[in-house]
Amino acid sequence: MSTGKRLAKRSIIGTRVAALAEDGLYYSGMIQAVKTPAPFPENNNCINLTPNTRYTVRFDGGKMSCEYRDTELIGPGFRGMTGVRLRHGQRVFLTHNGREVRADVQQHDHHTDELRVQVHTPGAEAPVELKKKLDEIRLLESRKSARLADVDTDFARLADMAGDRRRASATIEVPSHHMQGSRKRGPSSSCDLGYGERDDQMNECNAALVLMSLSCSPNSPRPSAWGSRSSVSPGASSSSGSSWRSGTPSPPPASSSFSDEGIAMDYEDIHPRKKRINSVVFVCTWRGCGYNTNTCSAIEAHIRNTHLGPKKEGDSDHEEEFYYTEREVAAPAPPPTLSHRDMCRPPHEDPEYQRQLVGSYRQGLLSIQNGTARPISIPVTHPWSNTHSPKHMRLSAASGSPGSPGRRPRSDNKKCRKVYGMDQRDLWCTQCKWKKACTRFGD
DNA sequence: CTTGCCGGGTT
DNA sequence: AACCCGGCAAG
Fold this sequence. Notes:
CR1/CR2-DNA-binding_regulator, RNA polymerase II cis-regulatory region sequence-specific DNA binding, DNA-binding, five-stranded antiparallel beta sheet, alpha+beta, C2H2-type domain-containing protein
């Protein structure tokens, strides 16, 4: 199908990322939904790359999810570690003795980007303290092996902050410490994903979404709203800038492109109205109640008081969030050119470039948002930004007709090599390792 | 020069 | 298969 493209694109949904949580630590999670409030979800190489796109990240080990901007997410396709400031206690992963170990940050010297970390070496009792450079450090597990089935204290904290007492299983350290020679990684089946647990999580994730959308449905007046994009509807419980935009009419089903599976997320992007945000109104979606207000706290208070009743002790589940939606009262925006939808990729690619572009703009937005939003304030202050990169159509010409022999055109996408660098070669997708066409960032 | 990756080799 | 790598071609 898609011309000469070998492998299906992957949706960004499901991508593993790390994001800063309230406690100042990064936690790993998975992108659950993408919302692009700004006009042009994609195709807009850079200028439009809507710094407003929000990614609903569901943190591992809990039902907690928050929204972030791409610039706040760390992971493949998003920003890298550069410039990240890690706090004491941050759970990180690094390659030690040829295998991935987890560690806790003791101290991070922002100038030299050196960190003192305490490594939990499987097999060893006492944690070892190491000095590592920031770029040797990952916030995500590169693979989820049983032995790394980590989730302990840190996640407990996470859970706490979500008001969710759920605690993931205790650590199961593997006693033995076998380094299997050069083969670092399991079967390549998972390499594609890069993260083995993806499927599981996706399922879980979808299930959660279904539940969420169910609980969101009080908003009956617009039955069709959810319709078209069925499956993964917007990431429910979000937070601050939360709420999904499904309230507005959904776009014509599957407009334009639907080339392959990677596209799913693109539609997430489409959902949002093509407007430029001017101001936001929070609308109560409780059946029959049309109450609206322009502050998040007000709407929540309303919901809490009017519909939910007094909060129970220990109930900090932000339940209110399920019952309101945020609507943008927008000023008209220039019509986007939604061509090439099928070629679009997840919005991220050239952090450097984006950084400059969005930098200041973003800051403004951030502050605006912080003003109104409550739940998860994101104390991120990186001068970052990334997202789209100039993306060109690669459709035709290049190497001739589809199916023609000849080399595939070079794609401008990042490749594992670029993203992870030589020193993290074990994070590359199998194909990259073999000097084959990249399957992870491939087009 | 670097980089992506094809084609073909080896294990 | 899984893996490795020479070497071509694009940039």
